[in-house]
Amino acid sequence: SALIHVSRLNSVYVTKGTEEANSLPRLNGSEQDALQLLKSLQLQLDLLAQQLTTFDEVQSGQATLKSWDEQYKKQAAEEERALLLGGGEESTIRRHNLQTKAGLTSAAESITESLRRSCQMMVQEVERSASTLATFDESTSVLQKSEGEYQGHRSLLMRTRGLLSTMQRLDVFDR
């Protein structure tokens, strides 16, 4: 029963590879279908392997499945590589799309880095502004103290002036 499934997988592998090799999207779709079938058959093989009586039969079935899986993946990679390196319109479009994505990724990284630098500069400016504001606060308090002292000196000078005027008048009366 397991050998029948393995044979069926091999026939799917051969027919899918030759019939649809002309189109990359169809090839990708057929690869996905074959991969799903392979996974399904692997699950069935695992279930059947539990029913096998000898360890050698289980190992043989798993080795065969693993070998075909590796062959399928290798051939799919080679076919995709051939399509990408080929001169067909699909490979040109695919290469263009890959280049566009790479360009967009590069531009996004550049913009992100620029935004990081801008953010860092903003943080530095905020820190400088905070420092300047603290300096202004200190200057304001010094100016307020100076104003208070100035008012005190002015008041003292006004009293002194008044006293001097009074003393001059008294001096004039005394003469």
TrEMBL record:
<dbReference type="InterPro" id="IPR056173">
    <property type="entry name" value="Sec20_C"/>
</dbReference>
<dbReference type="Pfam" id="PF03908">
    <property type="entry name" value="Sec20"/>
</dbReference>
<feature type="domain" description="Sec20 C-terminal">
    <location>
        <begin position="106"/>
        <end position="175"/>
    </location>
</feature>
<keyword id="KW-0813">Transport</keyword>
<keyword id="KW-0472">Membrane</keyword>
<dbReference type="InterPro" id="IPR005606">
    <property type="entry name" value="Sec20"/>
</dbReference>
<dbReference type="GO" id="GO:0005484">
    <property type="term" value="F:SNAP receptor activity"/>
</dbReference>
<protein>
    <recommendedName>
        <fullName>Sec20 C-terminal domain-containing protein</fullName>
    </recommendedName>
</protein>
<keyword id="KW-1133">Transmembrane helix</keyword>
<dbReference type="GO" id="GO:0006890">
    <property type="term" value="P:retrograde vesicle-mediated transport, Golgi to endoplasmic reticulum"/>
</dbReference>
<keyword id="KW-0812">Transmembrane</keyword>
<dbReference type="GO" id="GO:0016020">
    <property type="term" value="C:membrane"/>
</dbReference>
